[in-house]
Design brief:
Blueprint: E1 12-16, H1 31-43, E2 48-50, E3 54-61, E4 64-71, H2 79-88, E5 96-102, E6 110-114, H3 122-131, E7 137-142, H4 152-155, H5 162-185, H6 187-194
Parallel strand pairs: 1-4, 1-5, 5-7
Antiparallel strand pairs: 2-3, 3-4, 6-7
Helix pairs in contact: 1-5, 2-3, 5-6
Keywords: Cytoplasm, Hydrolase, RNA-binding, tRNA-binding
EC number: 3.1.1.29
Pfam family, one: Pept_tRNA_hydro
Length: 197
């Protein structure tokens, strides 16, 4: 097994970040939820409400036991549901993979990493605070910078553009592939496969 494999053979927690409710469903900020929905389709199950304020689905991906979770809190409070779910399933931070939107990457670009700062992302800041560590895996999905002088906080709460929506299903599928590669082959191999040039 690769030494940079999340969770060293144990169960993995895959957490997608977003905001609950139909009003936010198509927002850039909700890409984590959209990718988790694709992974849930691959597992072949439906999310169920779980104590601690999250929706959860257990299954298998890339020959690993996985727990898929979507916090039911708002983005800025993601830490409680993610850390609570991790504790319930006895998953250490190095077995957690968080899928989230990233302003500093062009639309659809993917970057996978372990640890690091939150880069102004309030969902990550909340998770780091709740876990007490930055050492969890992140799959960053590029949503690009806002145009002109638009506030980034407003931009991420807007839906993907018409042009982006034409590519969105493909990019979500590719991001789900990257998550599977990360937990199946390890960080370095997944980075080599999915990081652009």
């Amino acid at each position: 097994m690769s030494e940079d494999l999340p969770g060293a053979g144990e169960q993995i927690l895959l957490a997608g970040l977003g905001n609950p409710g139909p009003r936010y469903a198509g927002n850039r900020h909700n890409i984590g939820f959209l990718v988790l929905d694709e992974l849930a389709a691959r597992v072949g199950g439906k999310f169920k409400a779980h104590k601690g304020g999250a929706e959860v689905l257990e299954g298998r991906l890339a020959n690993r036991r996985v727990v898929l979770t979507k916090p039911r809190s708002f983005m800025n409070l993601s830490g409680g549901p993610v850390s609570g779910t991790a504790k319930f399933f006895k998953i250490a931070p190095d077995g957690i993979v968080v899928v989230h939107d990233e302003l500093d990457l062009p639309f659809g670009a993917l970057k996978l990493k372990l640890g690091g700062g939150d880069n102004g992302h309030n969902g990550l800041r909340s998770i780091t605070k709740s876990l007490g560590t930055k050492d969890y895996y992140r799959v960053r999905f590029g949503v690009d910078r806002p145009p002109g002088r638009m506030d980034p906080a407003d931009y991420v709460l807007k839906d993907f553009s018409t042009v982006e929506r034409k590519e969105l299903a493909f990019e979500i599928d590719r991001c789900a592939d990257a998550v599977e590669a990360l937990i199946g082959t390890g960080l370095t191999a997944a980075q080599n496969a999915f990081h652009a040039g």
